[in-house]
Amino acid sequence: MAVPKRKTSKSKRDSRRAANSKMVATGFVKCPQCHEPKLSHRVCPDCGHYKGKEVVAQ
Question: Per the record, GO CC terms (predicted)?
Fold first, then answer.
């Protein structure tokens, strides 16, 4: 069975875990109509517009 030769230091362990916290959610853009954040290529949930047209009546 494999056994570590040395104890992993706290800084080494924490810097390895810190890489996951740097990830950010992508794909959010501002709606051109109401300027609220929305997912790209989707109807805005606040105003119901898509590509400058009202798709969902509010």
Answer: large ribosomal subunit
Which secondary structure element, helix H or strand E, spans residue 28, and what is its range? Answer: strand 28-30
Using the structure block, give the residue that is written with the tokens 């898509």. Answer: 50
Asked if 32 and 52 touch (Cβ cutoff 8 Å), the reply is yes
Q: What is the mean pLDDT of residues 7-36?
A: 89
Which amino acid is located at 20 in the chain?
N
Distance CA 34, CA 45 (A): 10
Q: Is 15 exposed, middle or buried (0-12, 13-18, 19+ CB in 10 A)?
A: exposed
